Amino acid sequence: ESCGGTSFQCCINHYDESSEFEAMFILTDGYAPIPSESLLGVEPTWIITPDGDRNFDSKVSHVVVQMENED
């Protein structure tokens, strides 16, 4: 369940309206809702913060990278 009001729709809109990008990397804690609109065939790489949602990768079929805390 999300609680911060984050929406990735502006990222998708910007990507869709531009021809200068070949990839999308999204840094997030993973608690925001997953966008339902397509990214014109591009699958974003989701980078989840160290204390983020550890189950995020089960919500999407895209590449998910979980950051680690530095010791």
Show the helix and strand layout.
Elements: H1 9-17, E1 25-28, E2 45-48, E3 63-66
Parallel strand pairs: 1-2, 2-3
Keyphrases for this structure?
globular; 3-stranded parallel beta sheet; alpha/beta; 13% helix; 71 residues; 1 helix
What does this structure look like?
By secondary structure, this protein is α/β, with parallel strands linked by helices. Helices cover 13% and strands 17% of the residues.
Short note summarizing the structure:
The chain is an alpha/beta fold. 13% of the residues lie in helices and 17% in strands.
Strand content: 15-25%
Total E-strand runs: 3
Major sheet size, sense and barrel closure: 3 strands, parallel
Give the structural class.
Answer: alpha/beta
Give the neighbour order of strands across the main sheet. Answer: 1-2-3
Nearest-integer average pLDDT:
79
Shape by Cα distribution: globular
**Beginning-to-end CA distance, first to last residue:** 29 Å
Helix content, binned percent: 10-25%
Which blocks of ≥5 consecutive residues have pLDDT under 50? none
Order of helices and strands: HEEE
**Radius of gyration, in angstroms, nearest whole number:** 13 Å
> Total number of helical segments?
1
